[in-house]
Amino acid sequence: MFIDIGRIPVCDLAKSISAALNEKDEIITNDNCETNIPGLFAAGDVTNSQFKQAVIAVADGVKAANSAYRYVKDN
């Protein structure tokens, strides 16, 4: 069984700081969960990730945390 809570990402904060969004209002990220704004990372169902499942969102969160750590360490 797969339960779908909703398919509309809530990205008001991302919109307010001009993060790049796609036509579905999802935050556009690369493979490291980086957005178009240096130092801003996104993970989970609000991103342009192909699959919307909790386990994938958790994995994206780990990638985003590691990417943010490297960003802070290098800058």
Quick description:
Helix content is 35%, strand content 0%. The chain is an all-alpha fold and 75 residues long.
Tell me about this structure:
By secondary structure, the protein is mostly helical. It has a single domain, classed as FAD/NAD(P)-binding domain, CATH 3.50.50. It has helices at residues 12-16, 54-74. The chain starts with 11 loop residues before the first helix and ends with a helix.
Give a quick set of tags describing it:
FAD/NAD(P)-binding domain; mainly alpha; 75 residues
Under CATH at level 1, the class stands as: Alpha Beta
Q: What is the global morphology? A: globular
In total, how many beta strands?
0
Find the CATH topology.
FAD/NAD(P)-binding domain
Question: What is the total domain count?
Answer: 1
Average pLDDT rating? 85
Strand content: under 5%
Structural class: mainly alpha
Low-confidence segments, given as residue ranges, are none
Helix content: 25-40%
Could you state the order of secondary-structure elements as H and E?
A: HH
Taking the sheet with the most strands, its summary is: none
Radius of gyration of CA atoms, rounded to a whole number: 13 Å
CATH superfamily: FAD/NAD(P)-binding domain
User: Which architecture does the CATH hierarchy give at level 2?
Assistant: 3-Layer(bba) Sandwich
The span between the termini is 44 Å
Quickly count the helices: 2
